[in-house]
Design goal:
This protein is α/β, with parallel strands linked by helices. It has 2 domains: 2-172 and 357-373, 3-Layer(aba) Sandwich (Rossmann fold), CATH 3.40.50; 182-353, Rossmann fold (3-Layer(aba) Sandwich). Helix content is 44%, strand content 15%. The chain has helices at residues 17-32, 68-85, 114-117, 124-140, 149-159, 182-193, 211-224, 242-250, 265-273, 289-296, 309-313, 325-337, 339-353, 358-370; strands at 2-6, 37-42, 56-60, 90-93, 106-109, 143-146, 166-168, 198-202, 230-234, 257-261, 277-280, 301-304, 317-320. The chain has a 7-stranded parallel sheet with strand order 3-2-1-4-5-6-7, sandwiched between helices. Strand 11, helix 10 and strand 12 (301-304) form a beta-alpha-beta unit.
């Protein structure tokens, strides 16, 4: 069987949520199914490390697609041509987009519908593209995969798609995320937090991640507690970050906030593993991989009580209202003062982590892909 795959988000040194899902599942899939041929469609020169096995044929398909107009050209003009050229039996697209002009059965991964819930967080061109085309993609796809039960129900309800057409394939966390020794934690604290304990946030910095409220909550926490606790922010400035950039310069206790930018997985696993707790008060997530990464490091979490996040965190986290700064600050204070509570959350982490595994995810994605051939 010839399986064509949209791999345009496999970008060396720039893997984020969707990119990691693509990487982790495909790396396993191509090796688990050596009798099948995989054609990887990149939209720009690719790194050889993404050619995972001999049964992978990498193809650069122009134009580079990083704008809605170029999305349209890539998916509805270039991809149909390439699917015909390589005689593909099916198409797997892991970034929520697909071609509306091909008869090749498509398995579409829709990670979340954040753009439907928070459309103002996108620029107008992006907002129009996603809200106009996503319902069409969902209806045309032969099979839909998503990353949480919350997102499965959200897609089914909003787009009037039968739930039976949608499969849940959870994310996992990289093997690099594991508990650190006392000595390792001390080294990380010295390197990133002046030797102090610290809360950590990790993710691309844009409005949906709600980092402005996190900073306000940290200021409130510092006012209420005589503590040298720091806050380490990991992530690149993505879009609509002007308010965040302004607050970064003007906020009280700004010297206690450490901005470290984007990190590779080896660095990030150390920073998360060394944290006192993860604070992830995002407004909306289809999954929320940093939550799982923290739990895999035996680091307790404070997470939003919305969308998929309670599903991912289970009993290993405190839940907060992401729109309530005082609630976030209070939970930070609670986990800071109550060592017994923190220990209880840490003890609950391994059982929750066991529910998520990339090996299982890769096989479940394969099973969903094969349903594209069901009559």
């Amino acid at each position: 069987m010839r399986i064509a795959v949209n791999t345009r988000l496999l970008l060396k040194g720039k893997l984020e949520g969707i990119g990691w899902f693509t990487y982790q599942t495909l790396e396993r899939m191509v090796k688990n199914h050596p009798g099948h041929e995989f054609i990887f469609f990149f939209d720009r020169p690719y790194d050889p490390s993404f050619v995972f096995a001999k049964n992978v044929t990498p193809v650069v398909v122009p134009p580079p697609a990083r704008h809605p107009i170029l999305f349209y050209l890539w998916f509805d003009w270039s991809i149909p041509f390439m699917l015909r050229k390589y005689k593909a039996d099916m198409f797997l697209s892991t970034d929520g987009q697909m071609s509306l002009y091909t008869k090749v059965p498509t398995c579409l991964v829709i990670h979340d519908l954040a753009f439907e819930h928070y459309p103002k967080h996108l620029v107008p061109s992006q907002r129009f593209y996603w809200r106009h085309f996503s319902p069409k993609f969902a209806r045309k796809a032969k099979r839909i995969v998503t990353v949480s039960e919350f997102s499965r129900q959200d897609i089914a309800k909003r787009y009037h798609i039968p739930e039976a057409k949608i499969d849940v394939v959870y994310n996992g966390a990289h093997d690099a995320y594991k508990p650190l020794s006392w000595e390792e934690r001390e080294k990380v604290k010295t390197q990133y937090a002046e030797g102090c304990e610290y809360f950590v946030f990790a993710g691309a910095l844009h409005p949906r991640k709600n980092v402005v409220n996190l900073l306000k909550a940290f200021v409130a926490f510092k006012k209420h507690h005589r503590s040298n606790m720091k806050l380490v922010i990991v992530g690149r400035m993505a879009w609509k970050f002007e308010e965040l950039a302004e607050m970064r310069e003007e906020m009280r206790f700004k010297d206690d906030v450490k901005w470290v930018g984007y990190m590779n997985v080896e660095e990030l696993s150390q920073v998360i593993g060394g944290a006192y707790a993860l604070v992830y008060a995002s407004l909306f997530e289809g999954f929320g991989i940093p939550i799982l990464e923290a739990l895999q490091c035996n680091v307790p979490a404070i997470v939003s009580n919305t969308s998929s996040m309670p599903e991912v965190a289970g009993d290993a986290a405190l839940l907060v209202d992401p729109n309530d700064v005082e609630d976030i600050a209070a939970k930070m204070g609670q986990i800071y003062k109550d060592e017994a509570l923190r220990a209880k959350l840490i003890a609950a982490a391994p059982a929750q982590v066991a529910k998520f595994n990339w090996d299982i995810s890769a096989e479940k994605l394969w099973e969903s892909m094969m349903k594209c051939f069901d009559k």
